[in-house]
Amino acid sequence: MIPDKAPKEDVFHAAGGLRKDAHVPSFETYKELYTKSVDSPDEFWGDVVKDFFWKTKHAGRFLDYNFDVTKGEIFIKCMEGATTNICYNVLDRNVHERKLGEKIAFYWEGNEPGDDLTITYKELLHQVCKFANVLKSQGVKKGDRVSIYMPMVIELVVAMLACARIGAVHSIVFAGYSAESLCERILDSQCTLLITADGFYRGDKLINLKLIADDALQKCRDKSFSVLRCIMLKHLCKDEGASAGSQSPPAKRSCPDMQEKQKDRVKKGHPLPKVPWNPEVDVCWHTLMDGASEDCEPEWCESEDPLFILYTSGSTGKPKGVMHTVSGYMLYTALTFKLVFDYQPGDVYWCTADIGWITGHSYITYGPLANGATCVLFEGLPTYPDVSRMWEIVDKYHVTKFYTAPTAIRLLMKYGTEPVHKYKRDSLKVLGTVGEPINPEAWQWYYNVVGDKRCPVVDTFWQTETGGHVLTPLPAATPMKPGSATFPFFGVIPAILNESGEELEGPSEGYLVFKQPWPGMMRTVYGNHDRFETTYFKKFPGFYVTGDGCRRDKDGYYWITGRIDDMLNVSGHLLSTAEVESALVEHEAVAEAAVVGRPHPVKGESLYCFVTLNDGVSYNKALEAQLKQQVREKIGAIATPDYIQNAPGLPKTRSGKIMRRVLRKIASNERDLGDISTLADSSVVEQLFENRCCAAV
Ligand code: WTA
Question: How many angstroms separate the alpha carbon of residue 43 from the centre of ligand 1?
């Protein structure tokens, strides 16, 4: 299924220099290793296992699983019987065994140019051990869930690794989510502790994070659940505590002090966050850290102990707590990072994702640290203070491997080449993308303009559920086709099925599925194993169903065509239509809502919402603004609708099912509706076309 020889036409090849020292230097080597990974997985992964520290070794098969619902419960187990600690492997092992203690783990670059910090592996280990002791002092034990709601600061990495060190399960909630979303996630995972910060800036916009976190905690209380403690990092507030109130302890960053820079920020007229303080629940990060010991023996965890939960949108509207476990995730993120970015010891690697998403978990924290890499951790935006910011940072730190999202590339493309050419970017060697299909035009711009035609582009397809890359080029080995995620990573066996579940051979298009697990795939939906089986394994027994459509071309290359379930991908973030619809119908004016995606030149897809109002309510701009605000409050700014259309009637089948296929066509003004014979009342369609929202909002 993978061709013996790589195609020679219509492809881009890596430059010879990159091939010389590459881990996988040619297509032939890729093919050989791939065959070994599927024919002899124990041998293949055995070589990877040797790089890590195991307190006790595993006995038996490397992977044990059942992928077929008709044969019993779905399960995936990797290295059963082994014990280890992922925090030990990504920190202590690097400091003590690999002598990387003085190496920089992170260059932190703040929202404001000039705000920066560095932290070495040794310093990071000390911070993590101290914070692990802080967690213990707050009563956190192995298996307990801890919610983390923080901006992109080094302390976010400290918090997650400290959880991993003591065997607690972190549940990171992206700091752009609303109080309601945070509350829902805390309740679902029954977290007893929340870690947050006072606030942060996104560009010139202040986010009052503690205020939102408090709102979430109140919502939890209203639903009879109390978080016992909330640890707050002072990221912005300085000593005087500004609005923090008399109960609030003095600020001192555990990392080198930023107070001078903070003073500048205040001078420039940037306000400080509002920090409500409840002494019964709130505790200060810095005060706790001051008294904490630097000695903390790691908790030796079983391979299949949970490592973290990360929520991702579900088609019912209720987010799913995707659960990953220790050993398999560690091996998989470490190996994919090493091979997909062709990591070499002198590299400076930068992934622009937020740690609140899976990309940040796997390819800012765990994968890079497992390899002893130096990473850039960026708090800000690609367009602040100007649209050259990314390239300025690339030059400042001599970034060699750079990983971002197609939506960011399309956004920057709009400003032309000049902001890119202002900086040299000659350190760059490999470019990567993730999160959504990349259109060939954006790919070409990334390759030609950003990478000066020197750097291979690795288009990595994967999901929160897959833990790490599953379809991806290897930069020196795989000839690239712009827009294709190319071939499977080691141990991954993709297939394309038709609607009846038959496997298609050769060039074809259909459902993308996987035939067997790999070490890093999810193990369950937290607290709901039935939902795990139903969502991913019921439709086509024997396969893991990704929910994405896919085409395979004559050369065997895989091309992701986008979601084929009720999911939307806005700027690389997955949202379910049901989630947005339920936020809309909660408004008293709305009787019914239907949400579809409409193609958008920068975001990939934008949210187009049809709302049917209750009798007697009239549609106007004020109501439209309220509805948008409602969705922001319920879910977060990422879900803000771009278009809302008043829809007195919706196209429905005779059995009352909304025909979204028709709504999608209306949203993008495509008159060719296909077969609409099942439509109960076809006059609504014409009415909807007439009242379309045309202008971008
Ligand atoms: C989409 C992000 C095409 C896809 C790591 C997938 C992609 C969903 C690509 C997962 C890519 C991600 N090409 N589509 N290279 N990467 N996707 O869980 O629809 O936030 O199912 O994980 O993003 O999004 P998630």
Answer: 30
Q: Whose CA is nearest to atom 3 of ligand 1?
A: 437
Beta-strand ranges (E) seen in 353-412 are: 374-378, 401-404
Q: What is the rounded average pLDDT of the residues 166-178?
A: 97
Point out the least confidently predicted range of 239-248, 583-592, 665-674, 679-688. 239-248
Mutate to test the pocket of ligand 1, among 313, 434, 469 (most ligand atoms within 8 A of CB): 434
DSSP at 93: I
Please return the burial class of 50, using the count of CB atoms within 10 Å of its CB with bins 0-12, 13-18 and 19+. Answer: exposed
How do 348-351 and 320-325 pair as beta strands?
unpaired
pLDDT at 678 exceeding the cut of 90 = no
What DSSP designation does 69 have?
Answer: G
Distances 545 to 63, 510, 533 between C-alpha atoms, Å: 19, 11, 10
Domain boundaries, the chain: 52-78+491-565, 138-309, 567-696
Query: In this structure, which topology does domain 52-78+491-565 adopt according to CATH?
Result: Luciferase; domain 3 (2.30.38)
Strands in 401-404's sheet, in edge-to-edge order, are 116-120, 104-109, 374-378, 348-351, 401-404, 430-434, 457-460
Q: Is the pLDDT of residue 249 over 80?
A: no
Residue pLDDT, tens place only, 513-540: 999 999 999 999 999 999 999 999 999 9
Residue 8: what pLDDT?
A: 85
Amino acid at 367: G
Query: Of 104, 84, 142, which Cα lies nearest the Cα of 331?
Result: 84
CATH number for the domain whose boundaries are 567-696: 3.30.300.30
Give the span between the Cα atoms of 375 and 364, in whole angstroms.
Answer: 7
Instruction: Give the C-alpha distances (Å, rounded to integers) separating 382 from 110, 399, 448, 610.
Output: 12, 15, 19, 32
Helices (H), 462-547: 529-536
H-state helical runs in 190-346: 209-222, 259-267, 285-290, 326-340
3-class DSSP state of 538: coil
* Percentage with pLDDT > 70 across the chain: 95
Closest protein CA for atom 23 of ligand 1:
435
Find out whether 607 and 636 touch, Cβ atoms under 8 Å. no
> How far, in Å, from the CA of 492 to the mean position of ligand 1?
16
Q: Bridge-partner residues for 571, per DSSP?
A: none
- Dist. CA 593–CA 36, nearest whole Å: 51
Residue nearest to atom 10 of ligand 1 (CA): 463
pTM: 0.92
Ligand 1, CB cutoff 6 Å, lining residues = 312, 357-359, 434-437, 459-464, 485, 546-548, 560, 563, 569, 574
How far is the centre of ligand 1, averaged over its atoms, from the C-alpha of 643 (Å)? 24
Q: What is the pLDDT of residue 203?
A: 94
Token couple for 388: 């050259």
Q: Which of 229, 224, 228 is nearest to 196 (CA)?
A: 229
Q: Is the CATH number 3.40.50.980 carried by domain 138-309? A: yes
* Count of CA atoms in the C-beta half-sphere (13 A) of 168: 30
3-state secondary structure of 290: helix
Q: CB-hemisphere CA count at 13 Å for 655?
A: 1
260-285, pLDDT tens digit by residue? 666 666 667 778 999 999 999 999 99
Other beta carbons less than 10 A from residue 673's beta carbon: 17
Q: Model confidence over 611-658: pLDDT tens digits? A: 999 989 999 999 999 999 999 999 999 999 999 999 999 998 777 778
Give CA–CA dist 561/437, Å, rounded: 7
Q: What does the DSSP 8-state code read for residue 689?
A: H
Ligand 1 centroid – CA 494 distance (Å): 15
